[in-house]
Design goal:
By secondary structure, the protein is of the alpha+beta class. Helices cover about 30% and strands about 25% of the residues. The strands form two sheets. It has a three-stranded antiparallel beta sheet. A two-stranded antiparallel sheet has the order 2-3.
Length: about 80
Amino acid sequence: MEAEDLRLLIRSKLDDGCLPYNSMPRFWGGAGDGEQCDACDERITKEQLVMEGIASVFTNKKPVQFHVKRFYIWDAERRVPQS
């Protein structure tokens, strides 16, 4: 997936509430184990790293899981002022 397409997908998921705008006061990382990335909906394989955390105010309390690079894009996009 192209970088701009991924950024737009994450922005769309932020806007519709599928991804949290709130920070993750605690998050952790490790080897993937087939989790689904909440940013791109692709599987995170054992050869990849997963970033996982619980947003400070995310209603369903489900951990949010990202590929590492998608985590950084999400973090940057959530900080962009909302219009």
